[in-house]
Amino acid sequence: MKISVKVKTGAKKEKVEEISAGVFLVSVKEQPEKGKANQAVIKALAKHFKAPISEVKILSGRTSRLKIVKIG
Prior knowledge:
Layout: E1 2-8, E2 15-20, E3 23-27, H1 36-49, E4 56-60, E5 66-71
Parallel strand pairs: 1-3
Antiparallel strand pairs: 1-5, 2-3, 4-5
């Protein structure tokens, strides 16, 4: 499954919410430094979709707030 993800970094609380069909807002505590926020996004999505971390991949948008992510 491919989804679009909008990332909010530096949030007080980590959460994943669907803002429209197939588009998710992922809030993470980490800052976008050295891939820390991307790793946090992967972990948050894996937890939300109950999938192994190894099955969550960022297909595009590694350095952007807007990402395309593949799960499964």
